[in-house]
Design brief:
The chain has about 450 residues and is α/β, with parallel strands linked by helices. The protein is about 25% helix and about 15% strand. The strands form four sheets. Strands 3-2-4-1-5 form a five-stranded parallel beta sheet, with helices on both faces. Strands 6-7-10-8-9 form a five-stranded mixed beta sheet, sandwiched between helices. The chain has a three-stranded parallel beta sheet with strand order 12-11-16, with no helix packed on it. Helix 8 links the parallel strand 11 and strand 12.
Length: about 450
């Protein structure tokens, strides 16, 4: 490889639930200069990339204008040649109907170093979240995963076998008719899984011959997975995910800066789909300013979101952690610094802190832009919107996208007006947990 040429990471982001993201995927995202990403990525996974990383959307959706594969190849090559580390982020696994093999061949042909990071495919994960074992010692001895976007199903019936059809929901009628013509029993258990592993996952089960009608009746849409085989009937008794107390609840948390990823994951433990929209991307350290700070300099950290940028920026600026400035912050910031091994921190509430200590070591905040992933997610309904402190009065909320999306009545809870606060939510278990999460995570 020539000097100054970057690497490309072909990364599987998993099926949707961000808890299923691999450690390797998180590591390479944290050092990315450019992220080239698809449509079915959980939007908060993008927050794992550094604040300086460039985001390039190349998502494809059937029936709509999308980036061509040749264009995606050109984007990867262009940025790698500048010396950037490029993460090509794909839903599921990059080599299972993800065209990762084509991209790897292209990169090899152009002498670009690459690494393939496997991801958990929806072809297995969606079944698991629906309680359907892909194989079963006493029922199923094999499995076949096929693409269904063409509507063709030229496969012969095999007993004791699982058939998993990806990208086939829009052609379910054609697929089922061809399967029946190939000798598949009309009474064979079958199901369609919509948004597999996401908090708003839905499942429709029926006999194979009735599946197209059930999909239409229940308004099941892409993204989804079709499954048929003797084991599909097990969803009725093994659907563990649907038993979660917050199953199919969608909750949006609005904050100034992204919540710590681990805290966001913790809010999903009982099945809710929790998304965090922040007004700004993660803070970025100004390395030139950090180089001039001394141990006697007093620095105020208002939120946990500032801890990693400070510590990482300090190291990047060539400074020794033993020479950190005198740090102050609310209790959550102090706890976060303690977890990083920084113990000389003064706990000060936001009300009492010295305003002269307000940060000068960060670059100007970057307002979150009009991201396609968020447009896609915000088009779906939410059970509740949680507004964090120091958020709803900020001028950034007056942008057209945010105003159009959030400012208006909330008929679900009978509350009129703009986004309601966490204190206005009913005392359901998930609301109490989110209140606790926000109080602890932001010091409000």
């Amino acid at each position: 490889m020539g000097r100054g040429v970057g690497r490309v990471f072909l990364v599987g982001a998993g099926p949707g639930d961000p808890r299923l993201l691999t450690l390797r995927a998180k590591t390479v995202l944290a050092s990315a200069d450019v992220v080239v990403y698809d449509r079915l990525i959980h939007p908060n996974v993008m927050d794992l990339a550094p604040g300086h990383a460039r985001h390039i959307y190349v998502g494809k959706e059937h029936g709509k204008a999308s980036a061509r594969q040749d264009d995606i190849h050109a984007i990867l090559l262009e940025h790698a040649k500048t010396g950037a580390d490029v993460v090509r982020l794909k839903g599921g696994d990059p080599l299972i109907f993800g065209r990762g093999g084509e991209e790897a061949e292209f990169l090899r042909a152009h002498q670009i170093d690459f690494e393939i990071v496997p991801g958990l495919s929806a072809s297995s994960a969606a079944l698991t979240y629906a309680g359907i074992p892909m194989t079963h010692r006493h029922r199923i001895q094999g499995a076949t995963i096929v693409a269904g976007y063409s509507g063709h199903f030229p496969y012969s019936w095999q007993p004791h076998h699982t058939w998993i059809i990806m990208m086939g929901l829009e052609k379910v009628d054609m697929l089922v008719q061809e399967a029946l013509a190939q000798g598949f029993p009309p009474q064979l258990p079958a199901c369609a899984i919509e948004w597999g592993t996401w908090g708003h996952q839905r499942l429709v089960a029926s006999e194979l011959a009735q599946l197209p009608n059930r999909v239409v009746q229940e308004r099941i849409f892409s993204p989804g997975v079709l499954v048929w085989g003797e084991n599909a009937s097990m969803a009725r008794e093994m659907d563990w995910f649907a038993s979660r107390v917050d199953y199919q609840k969608r909750i949006l948390i609005l904050t100034r800066y992204p919540l710590p990823f681990d805290e966001l994951l913790a809010a999903r433990e009982d099945g809710a789909e929790v998304l965090n929209w922040s007004m700004f991307w993660s803070p970025q350290a100004d390395l030139e300013v950090l180089k001039d700070l001394t141990p006697s300099t007093q620095v105020w950290l208002p939120e946990v979101a500032f801890v990693d940028p400070l510590l990482q920026g300090w190291t990047a600026a060539g400074r020794d952690v033993r020479d950190l400035p005198s740090l102050q912050g609310p209790d959550p910031v102090v706890k976060s610094l303690f977890r990083h091994g920084v113990h000389h921190v003064l706990s000060v509430s936001e009300i009492r802190h010295d305003s002269s200590l307000d940060r000068t070591w960060t670059l100007p905040d970057q307002v979150r832009d009009d991201d396609p992933l968020w447009r896609y997610q915000l088009a779906l309904p939410f059970e509740a919107v949680v507004v964090g402190p120091r958020t709803d009065a900020h001028p950034a909320w007056r942008s057209p996208l945010i105003a159009q999306t959030f400012y208006g009545p909330c008929p679900r809870w009978g509350i009129e007006g703009p986004c309601h606060s966490l204190q206005a939510l009913p005392h359901e278990p998930w609301a109490l947990r989110l209140r606790s999460l926000w109080m602890e995570g932001d010091g409000a």
